[in-house]
Amino acid sequence: MNPFTAFHRGLRRALRTGRLAVYAWLAGFVFSLLWVIPVGTFLHGNYGRSPLWQAMGDGFSWTWLGDAIFRHGDLPALIAGGLLAMTSGWLLLSVYLNGGLIAGLALPRRRFLGDCGEYFPRLLRLFLLSLPVYLIAVLGATLLAELLRALNPDPVTEWGELWRQWARLGLLAAALAVVNLVFDLAKIALVRRPDGKAWRALGEAVLRLRGRAFGQAGMIYLLATTVSGVFILVYLEVARLVPSRLGWILAVLLPWQQALMIARQWSRLLCFAAESEWWEGPRPPAPATDLDLA
Amino acid sequence: MNRPVRLPSALLFAVAALWFAPPHGSAQTAGPNARPLKYEIWAELDHPARRLHGRETIEWTNLSAEPVPDMAIHLYWNAFKNERSAMLREYEDEGSGLRPIRLDRGDPWGWIDIRQLTLEGGADLRPGMSFEAVDGNDAPEDQTVARVRFPRPVLPGETVRLVLRFEARIPRVMRRAGFAGDAYFFGQWFPKPGVYEAGKGWNCHQYHQNSEFFADFADFTVHLTVPDRFVVGASGRETAVAHDPGRGTTTRTFRQSRIHDFAWAASPRFVRSERTFDPGQEVTAGELAGLARTFRCRPEELRLRPVRMIVLLCREHAGQENRHFRALAAGLKYFGLWYGAYPYDTVTLIDPPYGADVGGMEYPTLFTAGTSLFPGEGTHDPETVIVHEFGHGYWYGMVGSNEFEDPWLDEGINTYSTGKVLEKAYGPARIPFRPGGLPLSRYLRGLTYQDADLDRLAGIQAVPWDAVTTWAWKFSSSMSYGLNVYSRAATLLSTLEHLLGEEVMMRVLRTYFQRFRFGHPRHADFVAVAEEVSGRPLGWFFRSLFEDTLVFDYAVTDLHSTQAETPRGVFERDGRKWTVTATEAEKRDRARQGAPYRTLVRVRRLGPARIGGDARLQIRVAFADGRQKSVFWDGQAAWAEFSFQEPSPALRADIDPDGIYPIDANRSNNGRTVSPRAAPSLRWTGRIQFWLQNLFHLVGFFS
């Protein structure tokens, strides 16, 4: 299917099923809230009566930050551990939510939580399968970047270094995007497969991406990523217009931040929707093989 | 400072002077402005071989009142010779894994050899030359300090002239000296005597990981020969240029008096531009008049001189020329007005090429800075480094304190001064936020800073590690050296400014500059000037905050405000007893409208450092009716309690409400409100949650 047609159809499907993005956002909101409530309690308990902290309501105080580093210099290990636990927990929750999102898009009349539970085991297997592939992609991109570095080991201007950084970033992004695209399609295939076999779904996705199909799916992925990027840029441009006074922040900025989070969840939904449209669409004829010729 | 010569010593030296004939030349009388040194150096850059061939004459006059038997000479570049040098051992000992050298790109080593060393027309001193690990560290093979013995002691007032030939192998840039591609940086590159201190001998330390330099003021004449295509920037004024078409080289001669070092840089890729700093354009009559009032002098005494500003930029930074000149002019203006006019004719700014790892470094009348392709509007990058390194022309260049033994005297005072100049000339700065080199600072909403903010943030962390007055290489780590000498010292000077008042502080620094310009002051000299100018005893301040590792932290720990109640219980008067019950007391309290409130404030000294002298800590209480009351505390005891009877309850109490002590390690506890406010916690909790959600979204990519 033409990628633009798939994207257009996906857009309509994502708009129809926008509630799924709200469910995913809500899950993320509640999950993150569980972690920040202790932080908020800690801040309020330690600094609630401090006029310096109260001034932080309207801006930012380097003095307060210096104090906090001096007082709580032993906390970074705890914070790092907490972040690791949080992100691991979120990864699992995210795998769980994917079942509801993909099934809600791909299959008619679904129940979100029911789908999450139903597809979690098979999606978890696929997720575990994806981890070494991501690792290999990162290592491969890093290796390529190092080869590029060897071409110009001592750049004499900053341009040389910038090009190197941008090339490294581009390689890494491309490698991760390709793997992500393959596993996105594998998830869609897996939800549709009655046997629920992760390996087979992955094989199906890889086979489906041969030849021109890779370019089509890549274009869809790129379009969805661009939408997400546009959301972030719009957020940043509006956010910097909001005055940094407490009233404005509570009334405007905090809701605006959550609007971005919903939009980002929706752009993820859009990506799945467009990929599903493409997956379901007419397939290009498979390239001729020796067997066919025989 | 020269010590006065006492009579017995003078007689002794007179006899000695008759006994020994001067070796060469005639003895000179050292006047008050006498400089002990005069250099003439011929240096030729051998670009293909990465070598420097040099010839040098050193004319040294013994200004002390004692005969001097030897001379200690710095050979700094031998720090780059091998991993047995003190500097590289110290890097290794620190265990950070950081090295100042890159061993992965060919042969990076550098060294300097003295090939000939004679007294002019006389004795060969080289056979008796030896290397000394004068600082008693565990690098006995270090060759950064050489000692030569004279055939007989040099008498007071006598001048000797040494003739040297030296050859240096130029290292891949290490500690701001060496080559990077076809760019060369020559700092600490020639044999240079230490500083002779009467009664103590030569002050000539080895080249350490954490140390800079110390030398005597001198008159320099330097002839630099480089390939024709090289653009050269050097200390002092260029007085002659001679081309040699046969060899394809150019020899440039630079002269400068009253400087204690000479540095230069050369590269074919520098773009050179010059402008004149014109005080008539830069300084208004109003500014002169205002400062004249501060310094209690006539405005004419503050007038500045025109200065030739020379900027050598890398080609890709040529578009930032205006930005560099503006920052340089700001330095010339404010340092000149506040401390004293820049006395030299030129100042040269070098923009080192990318990857040279040179960064900002100061030398007399020349410094290196550094910028990026997209510095971004509103950031103080590269302005901070330009103003800072220019400022070293004052604090190090002219006030030649010992960077080995009193590193805070130049870095601390200069960091403080840099912050003041940037604040005056530019205002708050944006955080330089350049992911992937792109200038995105505008998205860091509201995140601006003044230099003093960041100095305080960093400085208070270093208090328990080492005293500020520790000798440079004796700090417990490079981090401790950096934070104590730069950030903590600057924060302490901000504290001193608040304590004395801005105008008094300006007078302290101006007096210190004027008194020790072209001299070698010590820590005690600065303390003496501060006490003299302010008229206040400040020994406690320097002892507990500079010379020790004591944390300074005063806090308001309790604040209660309750309306005075009718006391309950059994009371006696005129032999009669009666009981006030709770019900009766409440009834009376209701009837008694407007009863006063009793407010109790408890303050504590949480750190071991305490104020002293005539300093007092203000404790200010704000009440609900808008009135404020202050009391003062000497801050000696562990805690103190103050009570107030007022018609309205207290809202908040602050200790040091005017922020006189930025060095206080925890200013968050300097104030306390009766009721907590939830809104700031809500805002930041919301913000942290947003960051977490974004992190989750990012991580969710892998799900």
Largest interface: A-B, 78 and 69 residues
Number of helical segments of chain B?
Answer: 14
N/C terminus separation of chain B: 71 Å
Mean pLDDT of chain B: 91
Give the fraction of residues assigned to helices of chain B. 25-40%
By DSSP (H or I, 4+ residues per run), the number of helices of chain A equals 11
Describe this structure in words.
The complex is a heterodimer of chains A (294) and B (703). Chain A is built from 11 helices and no strands. Chain A is mainly α. In chain A, helix 2 packs antiparallel against helix 10 (246-280), helix 6 (112-151) packs antiparallel against helix 7 and helix 7 (158-192) crosses helix 8. Chain A is globular and about 65 Å long. The mean pLDDT of chain A is 90. Chain B has 703 residues and is α+β, with helices and mostly antiparallel strands. Chain B has a 7-stranded mixed beta sheet, with no helix packed on it. Chain B has a 5-stranded mixed beta sheet with strand order 18-19-20-22-21. Chain B starts with 6 loop residues before the first helix and ends with a helix. Mean pLDDT of chain B is 91; it is low at 1-32. The chains are: A mainly alpha (294), B alpha+beta (703). The interface between A and B is large, with 78 and 69 residues.
SSE layout and pairing:
The complex is a heterodimer of chains A (294) and B (703).
Chain A: H1 3-16, H2 18-47, H3 51-55, H4 62-71, H5 76-106, H6 112-151, H7 158-192, H8 198-208, H9 212-239, H10 246-280, H11 290-293
Helix pairs in contact in A: 1-9, 1-10, 2-5, 2-10, 5-6, 5-7, 5-10, 6-7, 7-8, 7-10, 9-10
Chain B: H1 7-19, E1 37-46, E2 51-61, E3 68-74, H2 86-94, E4 111-119, E5 130-131, E6 145-154, E7 159-169, E8 178-180, E9 183-186, E10 192-193, E11 195-197, E12 201-203, E13 218-227, E14 231-234, E15 237-244, E16 249-259, E17 264-267, E18 270-277, H3 279-282, H4 285-295, E19 307-314, H5 321-338, E20 346-350, E21 361-363, E22 366-368, H6 383-391, H7 407-425, E23 429-430, E24 448-449, H8 451-459, H9 478-500, H10 502-516, H11 523-534, H12 539-546, E25 554-563, E26 569-573, E27 576-580, H13 582-591, E28 597-605, E29 617-623, E30 628-633, E31 639-646, E32 650-655, E33 671-673, H14 679-700
Parallel strand pairs in B: 1-13, 19-20, 20-22
Antiparallel strand pairs in B: 1-2, 2-7, 3-6, 3-10, 4-7, 5-6, 8-9, 9-17, 11-12, 13-16, 14-17, 15-16, 18-19, 21-22, 23-24, 25-28, 26-27, 28-31, 29-30, 29-32, 32-33
